[in-house]
Structures are given as C-alpha cells and as structure tokens.
C-alpha cells in the first residue's frame, strides 16, 4: 500500500500528521539503531521487522478493513482484559500506544506530574493525536490494577470510549466472585457493542486461538534456556510486544516457524552471543513498544537477556485457559480462574510472583536478575525491594533499576549494568 | 502520673528513649508555636491541649491499664476499619503515629523513596521505635485503599501483627458483597483476638458510641458556618485528630461542651477572626498529628479555615450508621452500607466527592478551597486535577498544594497562600 494511502487513512483518523511523521521517523531510526544493528539474527525475525515497520500502516489498514466489515475494535492496556471474550464476539483486540514520551505536556494537564511514563504516554498519545490504534477503537477497556491507571482512566473517559473492569486485590473466594461478575459484565458489554452473542462454539474457538499463541510463546521461552542464547532479549521482547498488536493466527504461525529455526540453531550449538556471556532475566514493569532502552543497554553491556518476567513477557503467557469446558458457563469459569492466576503486583500478598521469578531464573539458567521499575510505579517499586531480598536469600544476584522513557539516564544505566555484568562473568 | 513512671512504661514498650525524648521536645515546641500562640481560643480547647500533651503519656497508660484488664488494642491508619466492631468486642480502637518525619532512612529500606510522607512515617515510627501506640497494639488493621499502603503493609507485616481488609474499588452490588464479606471476616478476627462474641446488645452500644461521636463532630462542623468563624481551623483539625486517639465517650462529652461554648460565642457574634477574613475549606489528604503545617500557613496568611474535607475531617463523620437494626445481621448490614458511602479517592469513579466538596464550600460559606495532596499520593493527586475543574465550573476559587512533612517549603507555601488569599478578600 502506498504511503499516500496511509496518509489518507491517518488523516481520516484525525491524527496530527506532521507530529505523527516526526514520531515515525524517530521510531524508524531508533529501531534501526537497536534492532537492525544486531549480528546473527534469526531469519524469522524479518516477519517481526515487517510487522513493526507497518505497525501504524498495514495493521491499522487491517483494523479499518475490519471496521468496514462491521467488526468492532477493542483497545486495552493490560493483560487482565480477557481477549478470548473480545475474539468470541468477533471483535479485534489490540494493545494501545504507551511506550514512548508523546504529548507529555498535554498529559500533565490531566494527570499529576508524579505519574509513571506509561500512563502519561497513553494519555499523551491520545491528546496529541498520535496513536492510530487508539483512534480506531470502538471501546477502550481499562482496569483497576494500580492507582495511577485507575484514576487516569477517569480523566481519559472524557476523551475516549472508556470501559473499566475492576480487578480484585486479593485472591480469596469473595475476590473470585467479584472478578467473575466483572468477566460476565465484560461479556455483556462486548455482546452489546458487537451485536454478537457469544456461543460455546465461538468461545471455544477464541480460547484455542489465544492459548495457541500462548503455547507458541511458551515454546519460544523454553528454547531460551539453551546456552549459547539462541535469540537476543531485544528480539524476544519485540515478539512479546508484537503479540499485543498482530493478528493472533498469523502471529502464532510466524512464532512457531521462528521456533523451528531456533531449534536448528540450538542443535548446531549456535547463538547470538558466546556461551560465556552473562545471562540475565529482566523482571518487573511492562515494556511497551518502543520502550527498548533497558534491553539495549543490557545487551550493549556484554550480557544477554534470557527471559522477560513482565506483562509483556511471561505474565501474559504462563497460564493457559483450561480447554475442557463444554458450555459457555464452564468456559467463563475457566477464564475467571486463569486470569486470577496472574501474579500482578496489584495483589496483596503476591508471594507467587517471588516464587515465579526465582523459578524462572533457574529455569532459564540466568546468572542474575535485572529488576525494572518505571519511576512512580508504586506496585512494582514496592515489590522490587521485596524481590531483591528474596533473590539475595536464594543467592541470585540482582540489580534494581528505576527509570522512565527519557534517554537522559542511558549513560548512567550503562555504567550500572556494566558493573553488575562484570560481577557475573561466567 | 510522674514522668519517671511514663519513662518506665516507654521502656517496657521498647521505645528508643533518647530519640523519643527528642521527638516529644520538638512536638511540644511545635505545638506551642502553632497552637498556644493563638488569640481568643475557646476555653474548652484546654481539654484538647491536655490530651495532646499527654498523648504519649496518660493515653498510653490507659491502653496499658486496658491490656492489664485483658482488653486488646487495635491500631489503624484508615477510616474504613469499622470501629464499631472493635468496640463491640470490648477492644480499644486507636489511630497510629503517621504525621511526622521519623525514622525516614529506615523506612526507605522497606518502601520506595517515591512513597508519600504518611506511609514513610508509620513505617519509620515503627522501625525507629518511636510510637507507643503501635507498640501497644495486639493487632494492626490495614486496608487496600491505595497502592502505597497496600504494598507497604506487606513489608510492615514482618515487623508488626498486621491484618489487612480489602476495600473494593467501585460501589456496585458485587463490590458490596466483597466488602460485606470483609466486614464479616473482620468481625471474626476481632472475636478471635478478644475471645468476646459480638452480640446484638454489644454491637448496638458500639454503634451508638461511634455515632454519638460523629454527631458531636457534625454539630461542631455545622457551627463553623457562622461568620465570624467561632473556632480556628487549627483547633478544629486538632479535635478531629484527637478523635482517633481519645476514649470516645470522654471525647464526645468534651466536644459537646465545647460546642455549647461555641454557641454562646456565635450568639455574641464573636469569633477567632474578623468577619471579613477570607474563609477557606481545606480538602484532600488526611493530616495526622502533628501535621499542622498547612493549616498554620493558611491561618498565618490572613485566612481562616472553616472545614476539613479529609479522612481526618468530614470523611470520617459525615455518615451515621443506621441505628434501627435489631439483630447482629441487620447491624452488620448497616455498617457495610455506611462504610461504603465513604467518598475516598480509592473509588473509581468518585464523583460524589466532587459533589460533596462543592456542597461543603457553600454550606460553610467558604470563599475558596485549598486542595492538599501529599507528594506521591496518586489517588488524591489525580482527584485534585478533577476537583479543580469542578470548582472552576462552580466559580469557587481553589488552590492546589502538594507538599510533604518537611518544613523546607513553608516560605514558598506562605507566598502562594497569601497570593490566593489576597485574591479572595471579602
């Protein structure tokens, strides 16, 4: 599709075209520096490069085509929104822009200055008219996972078609009841939006689609326990990021093809870094596109990332939905149970996350853990202290990083990560 | 009681005596500067001066005496913990120290630097062994009202006997169910702690005690609509603060006696400031003892505070528990309903708070509203922006202040408040 057709589409979506051009230019350069400069990439990453190069182009065109066919677009910022229900009503489920500083001054008129970069970003993208995903949405589904998002959605609702799901804060029977009623309420909302009744057949198919994507990503992650590391952390993060935007069937097929290549590479004892490269697990806050700063810093400091313990990582794929349900009711119960297993820092206590991180570090043969918190993210900021103590107790070295989307601290981060990595030399 | 007996008591509570001495000295001087310097105070404030001067002395002695009689002490940081249930089990219900910088360096080892002063304070008071209330507690009841407290309680639980109540984030039927199950769980926990079964008679009596205190404070607030203002905002804040520490029966009696005096003063058209003094409503985060900085700044800048819209203010007293219930079940339902009316910023949406603040400003004949947010308090930080817009729309002037417990910004705050007050001259 020609660039002029995209421009026409973006204009129809009421994007700020000059600012959007500038954004795409910066994004392209950033991607080139961080991704295209890598040595020994897997051939299958070409698919991801293509998807990312077309993330505001071809993918948005697909959304517009879906809308022209009468399908609805549902946007989200969180792994708690049950994608299976969206898909079962034949709507499209996409993640929204929240990974770069954009429209920050405008955002700070709606939310406090002391708000994390991710929240300021999604509000800024909307107010500055820079996110074609947000502008394509018929419904945007938020959740009450943190104070920052919970309260930001109230302000955001004046600018976008918001719907908010309440996520409980503990995991007892009464919390499951609350969460179940929220899942049922979401089902009704999506049915109303789309005019499509969610049948057992539709829901079963949707559960299989999303589980298949999770299985492909689980397969990818399992292969990363190999030494030398067969894929860079940057590429694996990109794959996880793209999983929120791309058509799920196409994506799953591509990732399985990539995994076939990785298996060949492992059989040949090849990798993206020598076998003695320090292996790090990245753990903490989500990294939305194009938030590649810390992975780039880490992998430029002589280490390789072997896992992402985050919502844009294992938190989104670890648990499958039980597929044995026969009725809609059975399947909804299975969804309720699966989503309540998520080890988000919004829960108190959230000890299973401590267990999961320690287990991942061992499983992926990591030499250490880099904890990543967005500045002003209270849930993961608190857990960073708790997790640091737990990792100390298990004699797993860890480094806690707090940062935002600016580039001002890159040199300082490099220095800290290099010092940490040197300590780990295998 | 002689100072030496208090020292013995503090020693038994394992307080850090030299640091505690220093704290009491600073507190005494601070109180003298801010409170004893006031002109035309009500004679009934002597009771409050006495209670405050004995807050770590006589009141702690009373708690120790209660413990010696086999009664239990329950400490809290939030107006969501149903005091009626604590009292019905014959336990003592007290607020805990959280209004001054204390043990900050120690606290920052347990919680992130970007945590509000109130949370750092309660952790610091505990770790530095400076709060005789905390040290007297058999149970400390937290709640999930904000990310900061929710996660801080996890760390705090390693140092104190913590119990956490989950507060829902919306107010629909499923939220009421969750909250009801939490109220029932709290009842069971208190019964287990005390060995006392909560009967209808006990619960009815407790409801009356707490309602009577609310009624006395409602009476006080209603009298503050008079012009000239019959009582300073500092004194009214102190009364609200002391309501969390003092014996409820004694307190209620004293406040009603004070209200009698206020009525005489109003009849004589007398007040603490001339009738043309700008009248301000204070709104936002709670101000725990000895957090008197902003009220002092405001009332030193030629204004008078006529109401406190905060948890240590109207949020704790606006709603009574329905007293018509006959059975324990009825009364528990009445408690559930009453507590779910609280217009805390933890709810989304929380539009009733916007309505309540605007209504209070009119009711108390306020010329403007000073919004107070603790730095890094996300819920009230977000609502400050929303409330500012609402007050603008109602043509009620407002000023948003974000601060902490340090004294470094006092001059800057004075300048801002003076500029705001001059704009309002009646």
UniProtKB/TrEMBL annotation, chains A, B:
It comes from the Bacteria. InterPro entries: FldB/FldC_alpha/beta (IPR010327), YjiM-like (IPR047678). It holds the Pfam family HGD-D. Belongs to the FldB/FldC dehydratase alpha/beta subunit family. This is 2-hydroxyacyl-CoA dehydratase. It comes from Oceanidesulfovibrio indonesiensis.
């Amino acid at each position: 599709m020609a660039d002029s057709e995209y421009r026409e589409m973006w204009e129809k979506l009421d994007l700020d075209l000059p600012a959007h051009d500038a954004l795409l230019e910066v994004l392209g350069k950033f991607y080139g520096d961080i991704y295209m400069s890598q040595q020994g990439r897997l051939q299958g990453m070409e698919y991801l490069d293509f998807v990312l190069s077309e993330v505001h182009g071809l993918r948005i065109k697909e959304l517009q085509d879906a809308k022209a066919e009468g399908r609805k677009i549902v946007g989200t910022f969180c792994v708690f929104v049950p994608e299976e229900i969206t898909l079962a009503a034949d709507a499209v489920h996409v993640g929204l822009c929240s990974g770069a500083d954009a429209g920050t001054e405008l955002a700070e008129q709606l939310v406090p200055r002391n708000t994390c970069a991710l929240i300021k970003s999604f509000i800024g993208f909307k107010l500055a008219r820079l996110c074609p995903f947000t502008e394509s949405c018929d419904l945007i589904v938020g959740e009450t996972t943190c104070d920052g998002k919970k309260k930001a959605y109230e302000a955001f609702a004046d600018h976008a078609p918001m719907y908010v799901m309440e996520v409980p804060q503990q995991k007892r029977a009464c919390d499951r009841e609350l969460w179940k009623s929220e899942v049922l309420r979401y089902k009704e909302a999506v049915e109303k939006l789309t005019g499509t009744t969610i049948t057992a057949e539709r829901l079963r198919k949707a559960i299989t689609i999303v589980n298949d994507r999770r299985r492909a990503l689980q397969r990818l992650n399992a292969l990363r326990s190999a030494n030398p590391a067969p894929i860079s952390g940057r590429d694996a993060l990109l794959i996880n990021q793209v999983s929120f935007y791309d058509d799920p069937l196409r994506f799953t097929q591509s990732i399985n093809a990539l995994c076939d290549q990785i298996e060949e590479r492992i059989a040949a004892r090849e990798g993206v870094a020598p076998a003695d490269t320090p292996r790090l697990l990245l753990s903490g806050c989500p990294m939305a596109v194009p938030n590649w700063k810390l992975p780039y810093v880490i992998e430029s400091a002589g280490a390789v990332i072997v896992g992402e313990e985050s919502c844009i990582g294992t938190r989104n794929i670890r648990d499958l939905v039980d597929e044995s349900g026969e009725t809609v009711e059975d399947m909804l119960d299975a969804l309720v149970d699966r989503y309540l297993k998520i080890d988000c820092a919004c829960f108190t206590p959230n000890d299973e996350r401590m267990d999961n991180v320690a287990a991942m570090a061992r499983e992926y043969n990591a030499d250490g853990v880099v904890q990543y918190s967005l500045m002003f993210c209270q849930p993961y900021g608190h857990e960073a202290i708790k997790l640091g103590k737990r990792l100390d107790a298990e004699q797993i070295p860890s480094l806690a990083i707090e940062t935002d989307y600016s580039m001002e601290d890159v040199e300082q981060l490099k220095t800290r990560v290099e010092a940490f990595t040197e300590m780990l030399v295998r």
